[in-house]
Amino acid sequence: MMETLHVKKQDGIATITLNRPEVHNAISVELVEELHEALRDCGADETVKVLIITGTGKSFVSGGDLNQFIAARGYEQAYPLLSKVGALLSAIDQSTKPVIAMINGAAVGGGCEFAGACHFRFASDKAVFGFVQIGMHITTGWGGGSRLLDILPESKALTLLLTGERLSAEEAKTYGFVDEVYLAAQLEEEVNRFARKIATQPLVGIEAYMRILHWKRAGLPQSERIRKEIDQCAGNWGSEAHVAVVEKFLTKR
Known about the structure:
alpha/beta, 2-enoyl-CoA Hydratase, Chain A, domain 1, 253 residues
């Protein structure tokens, strides 16, 4: 039984709900460990094809748990804490299955870094965003700045990082950080509708396309990625499932 989050699996979709509403789903060491466990479980479960991460209450993720993070003084104490969360966000980023951030509320500071590690970001119209770290005399510390510079054009990413500006969900969409914005009452339904489109597809193809994404993020030259893509497709070609679909198409024709 997990104490900091809930996991529900249904119809190929695993929904992971962060459950620390009393601290606005702040990231604690305990939550990091439980979320790692949930990601490993979902990654190994062949019935799961897509993951959704969301929060309980009015916040998505508020950042690091201040009771743990503010107690750290100096590099020697801060680095291990920051690295733990950085490794978690890398595990999300490098997941073999797509991860959707269902941003139900505030995602400020570390919450923005968390959202940026997911492959899709769908937000409630009540959500608020902001890379506010600069105003606290620090920077993004979980890899969020680096990811933002990959997600957005450099000037847009730097604007958010250097100004610490808070954004509405619609403003975050205008920047390109958020994919879609929905009314709060419709967010869960719309995100699940999108997730089901993925969950109806074969796992072999989903994981293959995630590998293609990871090759790109690893900086492999396009020529190498194309070679690996062809090799990967050839390995799946002629499987029983592939042949069955082709034969069904030919029979209909």
